[in-house]
Amino acid sequence: MHFSRFGERVSPVLQKTVYMYTHSWRGVGEHIPGKRACAMQETREEMAPKKAGYCVKCKKHVPVNYFVWQDGTTHPTTCNQHELEHKLASDGLRYCKVCDNFIALDLFPKTGAMSYICKKHKYAADVVRKHKETEESHPGRKRRLRQWKLCWMDSRKFKQASIGISQHEIDLEIAKIDQKGTGKYAIMPIDVKKVITTENCVVVTTQKRKRLMKMAALNDLEGYARIIVEK
After folding, report:
1. Torsion angle, CA of 27/33/36/38, rounded to 10 degrees?
2. Which of 62, 111, 200, 229 has the fewest CB atoms within 10 Å around its CB?
3. Cα 13 to the center of its chain, rounded Å
4. Among residues 134, 188, 183, 143, which one has the least CA distance to residue 167?
5. CB-facing half-sphere around the CA of 67: CA atoms within 13 A
6. Sign of CA dihedral 58, 64, 66, 70
């Protein structure tokens, strides 16, 4: 005779019923046909050979036969599309996209990811990029350089060998009229026969400058002198 947890007597018949009910549900998952079929399917999938592999250089999945190279060797991470590249690397060569030629591996950067741009052209690209970043971080410098170049090109059209005014002086003259730096103003010489200086210059709009340059090209110096003093 057994007792329950509450101290009550349990009959042998009830005890046997509970025992059969408890043990009949052990491992119930093993008797479910659907679960057994799923397990068998997973096993077959694991045993089946893969149809594709991932190429680390192509960065995509390609058929597994692509990983077998012409010499019969298998490369699990690189497909045979890169076999020539591997052969050239073993010969000490690599292609430079800028040189458009195969050059020695020693001419490529040895640190970082593998590059197809040689050290010479990579350095040139870095210089251009840093220069652009510097110009963008100093907008005033770019504006002054543009104003000075415009003045310098005009002096060549006036057949002047040089200009007698600096970037800073040009910027100060234009800033007297254009405080916001809109870029719609430029300086022109009052007398085109003389070198442009702080005394021989006047600030005009870019539209007026085009008109004055046309007169100077036609050698209409009288019309130039009349227009240059107009407000």
Report:
1. -130
2. 111
3. 81
4. 143
5. 18
6. positive
